[in-house]
Amino acid sequence: MYTFGQKIKWSSIRIWYYLSIALTALTGGLYAYITIPYFSYIFFNDLAFWKHGKHYPKLIGQLYRIIYFCIVDPRYRAMYSQPLAAPPSSGPDQARVKLSVGWTSSKNDCARCVNCCIKIKCPLMDDEGKKCLVYNSVYWRYFSCGRFPVSRKQIDYYECPKWEMRENMPGQSPVGRKEDMLYT
Ligand code: SF4
Ligand code: SF4
Predict the structure, then answer these.
(1) Is the pLDDT of residue 170 over 50?
(2) Distance 11 CA to ligand 2 centre (A)
């Protein structure tokens, strides 16, 4: 089990991030530039912010796109799941997901699929659109990417061919399963 101290640390990192992106959105991106070493570290694991200059305008644009999705797309809102005190993760919870029956590639790669990245037009793919530029960064591990998928809603929204949820997962209520089926 996780200690109270760990949960405080993970929650603090997420709360600070949410506050930072809220201030960034409210200031038209100015706050991100004032605190640019922080964002450079969060996204690129690198305090040398000047190396990543071309990405910041795209990230600020992406922030507004995500806010737009949250406002206009109920499916996007419904599938967002980010417990504040959850541990950072570099892969989905294997107790909750399994490989799809038709998935023939390795568990450790996505066989050139980038459905989940292009669905939200993520600007953090490389120029060929095949590789994540922030793989295993703080952002990647603490938020959606590292723990994807956490629900059937996410799998359906991103049309993920690799994962499916396990049946009768411990802790999943019948109501939860019924809700998941709304998007099938
Ligand atoms: S895995 Fe990387 S490229 Fe894909 S959505 Fe996440 S941050 Fe963007
Ligand atoms: S949609 Fe699924 S298979 Fe495709 S890149 Fe995302 S996690 Fe991998």
Answers:
(1) no
(2) 27
CA distance 170 to 35: 42
- Tell me if residue 165 falls in helix, strand or coil: strand
Q: Which residues partner with 163 through β-bridges?
A: 99
Question: Could you list the residue range(s) of the whole structural domain that residue 106 is in?
Answer: 4-183
pLDDT confidence of 45, banded at 50, 70, 90?
very high
Q: Is 24 exposed, middle or buried (0-12, 13-18, 19+ CB in 10 A)?
A: buried
Indicate if ligand 1 lies below 6 Å from the C-beta of 59: no
Closest to 83 in 3D by CA, of 19, 7, 149: 7
**Which residues sit with their C-beta closer than 6 Å to ligand 2?**
110, 113-116, 148, 158, 160-162
CA distance 122 to 69: 13
Ligand 1 pocket member 117 (CB < 6 A): yes
pTM score, whole prediction: 0.87
pLDDT of 77 above 70: yes
Amino acid at position 104, single letter: T
Q: Quote the mean pLDDT of the chain.
A: 89
Q: Comparing C-alpha atoms, which of 150, 140, 133 is closest to residue 89?
A: 140
Give the count of domains, the chain.
1
Over residues 138-150, mean pLDDT: 94
